[in-house]
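Hi again,

Forgot to attach this to my earlier email, sorry! This is the prediction with zinc ion bound. I've pasted everything inline since the attachment limit keeps bouncing my files.
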Amino acid sequence: MAKVAPSILSADFANLEKEVKKVEAFGVDFIHIDVMDGHFVPNITMGPCVIESLRKVTSIPFDVHLMIEKPEKYIKDFASVGADLITIHCEATCHIHRALQEVKKYGVKVGVALNPATPLCFIENILEEVDLVLIMSVNPGFGGQNFIRSSLKKISSLKKIILENNYNIKIEVDGGINENNAVEIVKAGADILVAGSAIYKSENPGDIIKKLKMIN
Ligand code: DX5
Ligand code: ZN
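Structure tokens for the complex follow:
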């Protein structure tokens, strides 16, 4: 069974509590929170204050995807407001190893993310440090983009590395996922599917969540 992480980037920001409750009712595994700084990506979204407020209204684990430069400066802030998993882009800091240790220091699960153009070899020396690898299947910054198909090969190559080395690492895939392409993404090796527009722009979010969760 695939795990599902709705991205609230595509939710109604004026009603975030309601939007989180809407997906909570269907047993989602995480709430995916996209933090953007207008530097690492060309968009600005939300920060620790929003997460702190949401933490009070739900117990679903928070999967915080940091698309910010110098992430190491803000890890304490995100860990202290209730992030359960913090994912950092390997392209966002030249000290990724140190940044990952910083996350672990707060007892929070840690992930590393790769942009579509970044090869897997970029993270091979830090795989033993992470709980999760986030494969970006769109260029980060916006919801509603099309899935980049070359990501499938990257997902299956990563799965192979994980199995060969017996690593305890989950593969999360983020960007352009919908009910039409989710099966092949899971088949390639994804454990966790992030979906923003497919869930929040749907007339029936519950149906989509159920379909995604049923994929083996
Ligand atoms: C994009 C974000 C994604 C985004 C996915 O930079 O990291 O999490 O919300 O949105 P969809 O599912 O619409 O591609
Ligand atoms: Zn994301």
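The chain has a mean pLDDT of 98. The chain has one domain: 3-213.

That should be everything now.

G.
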